[in-house]
Amino acid sequence: MTPEQMRDASLLELFSLEAEAQTQVLSAGLLALERDPTQADHLESCMRAAHSLKGAARIVGVDAGVSVAHVMEDCLVSAQEGRLYLRPEHIDALLQGTDLLMRIATPHNAPSAVEIDAYVALMGRLLDPMALAPPISTPIAPFMDQQQAQPPAIEVPIPVVESLPIAPSEPPRKTRRTTENGERVLRVTAERLNSLLDLSSKSLVETLRLKPHLATMQRLKRIQSNGLRALENLNVHLKDQNLSLEAQEALDDARRLLAESQQLLVEKNAELDEFAWHASQRAQVLYDTALACRMRPFADVLTGQVRMVRDLGRDLGKQVRLEIEGEKTQVDRDVLEKLEAPLTHLLRNAVDHGIETPEQRLLAGKPAEGLIRLRASHQAGLLVLELSDDGNGVDLEKVRRSIIERQLSPADTAAQLSEEELLTFLFLPGFSLRDKVTEVSGRGVGLDAVQHMVRQLRGAVVLEQTAGEGSRFHLEVPLTLSVVRSLVVEVGDEAYAFPLAHIERMCDLEPEDIVQLEGRQHFWYEGRHVGLVAASQLLQRPASQTSQQTLKVVVIRERDAIYGVAVERFIGERTLVVLPLDERLGKIQDISAGALLDDGSVVLIVDVEDMLRSVDKLLNTGRLERIARHSNQAPEAARKRILVVDDSLTVRELQRKLLLNRGYDVAVAVDGMDGWNALRSEDFDLLITDIDMPRMDGIELVSLLRRDNRLQSLPVMVVSYKDREEDRRRGLDAGADYYLAKASFHDDALLDAVVELIGGARA
Fold first, then answer.
1. Residue from 387, 386, 364, 388 nearest 377 by CA
2. Pairing of strands 494-499, 602-606
3. Distance (Å, whole) CA 562 – CA 398
């Protein structure tokens, strides 16, 4: 590339940045002018933006940009000087020009020469002298139908007519992108920001490691001070004795050297203390600044949304206004990027499904213009978004009919569904209330896509509605994906962090607070029994040997699922910088990421949603372990554990219930592979297995077990539908201790065989 080409490429990049900034000014100003075409400040800002873009396009040699910006400037100057009253068709055309300018500044999406000529011709017609005079007596209608809103068709390009002389264009000064506070804006890659945040967090941890060194130095100073006093006391006791001159001099030298070293230690200790304080302060500021660099105002995700609502409303023949609160709410840039698509879905949904036509609204006693409100705020470490409209709400009966037509539920069941239950169907994939597909909706990919994207952010979305008055979507997502406020706990002598967003509460349970229901442990919480599970089992850590009377429990919730997780100790709340796990590790069960604590030690961040799935799996397979309740009562004899392996749900449950009723502790596995994994990770007193199963049959399972040094002495019972001699021989040859045919066994036969092999239920 020649120097001239490099210069041209650099200028084009600057023009692209200029266009991005100035078109945002134009869009915001034109939408404001649509509501009040005489606002002088907005007219001035729009005119200056068009003027700047014209000069910038002339400098870089983009003739199309000069032509478009010039006719837009003519229109705005005419409006400023009172020779033109901006009607809706003028605003439409100016917004169209804004889009063209942005496309011109984007080389891969540049408009054709025909489009540019057609636009210049359109503006020429709108600037025709017949259209320049403001209306005399007839007010402008507040609403135009879809045909009136469209620009007039252009068949033959008409040259633009210069209206009145305007000030000659001046080359724009080299502009810098700035914030509302006048701060310069630079482009930095997300990878570099992530690296900076990672380094700053480690720097903060390193400075905190000075604290134990300071404590050690203070202790050393005290020890030395005590040594000096002991030497002084020794000198006093030896004064009355006749010491040789050499001994007295040696004692004095020791006292002097010890006093000098103590003075030096005091000075250096003070210096180290001051250094540690300043270092920690600077590291904290560095960390806070690096974190702030990732945060952006919520308004960044709203670029074009107001315009989109306005344009979509006009296309559908509706008057719609979008009001936004909390535009300056700070959110992580990664979260902002992921919020853009679901917000667009919800806004389009509100315009298409919620807001009525002006005629319908007037008949209902509402203003002709519909209102959509979007509010952003911070609450308990979360970004809370509320999007509401004053439309017609959701037609629940239409939802009910659609459920029946799509055979999602029987008619008698659908008739009993509550409002909350009916609204949840709107989030199902492919569900739509539109009878036919349009450009806006009808494909059933709206609300389910919103829910999917919000869940990817570890958030939640809820829909509420009032018939005839409108709908309201409530979204909660984390403020940042880089930092998480967590409760750090101890499990198996290791630290784990539970994100606070998923914690209902922490509590201490007394032994009498834990009850047994259907063989599972529960405790009473908010008027319901909540299941209790051990974190040590979920995270595969050794069970706690603590002698505490109370049980430390973290109550976690994800939508409707709620459980209490028993841990060993609450360490406390911490703000943790999320450190992604190495991709080579793949997805680790129940863990989402890692972090560093203040002392530099590693903590793993729990994936609560994954953990709840693990709890459900343990419940379904009957492997959930009981948590020992500490009390002053004599310890109860341990129950013997039996593993039942069978691919038939009916047989599996029958055997499990029979053995549970007899007092045994029973776990189940769905096939041989699942059973083998259970045998390797847990201890059992007996294995009961079927023969014909997917992935690994019973014969293979028994053969593997007999080759394992730890498991080879475990009693094994084979229970099979096949009652042939060769099958019996195969099972016994593989190492089974007992063979029972399902076709011939009854309750007592199974239980008698178990007692014969391992005895009663209690050890």
1. 386
2. parallel
3. 33
Single residue among 478, 511, 537 that ends a domain in this structure: 478
* Model pLDDT for residues 696-725, shown as the tens digit of each residue: 888 889 988 888 888 888 999 888 766 667
Q: Does one domain contain both 386 and 460?
A: yes
Residue 289 phi/psi, 5-degree rounding, is -70, -45
| Helix (H) / strand (E) containing 314 | helix 305-315
Residue range of the domain that includes 667: 641-758
> Within this chain, do residues 444 and 302 fall inside the same structural domain, yes or no?
yes
Say if residue 139 is in the same domain as residue 26. yes
Residue 382: strand pairing partners: 379, 478
Backbone conformation region of residue 741, classed left if phi is above 0, alpha if psi is from -120 to 50, else beta = beta
Q: Are residues 120 and 225 in the same domain?
A: no
**CA distance linking residue 717 with residue 757, whole number of Å:** 9
Q: What is the pTM of this model?
A: 0.55
> What is the longest distance spanned by two Cα atoms in the chain?
126
Work out how many domains the chain is built from and give that number: 5
d(C-alpha 486, C-alpha 606), whole Å: 10
CA distance 42 to 27: 11
Contact 532, 566 (CB under 8 A): yes
Structure tokens at 56: 């910038």
CATH for 392 = 3.30.565.10
312 shares its domain with 287: no
Does residue 443 share a domain with residue 352? yes
Question: What is the sign, positive or negative, of the torsion defined by CA atoms of 201, 202, 207, 208?
Answer: positive
Spell out the residues 6+ positions from residue 442 whose beta carbon is closer than 8 angstroms to its own: 432, 434, 435, 436
Q: What is the pLDDT of residues 67-84, one digit of tens each?
A: 999 999 889 988 888 888
Amino acid at 367: P
Q: Cβ distance 465 to 425 under 8 Å?
A: no
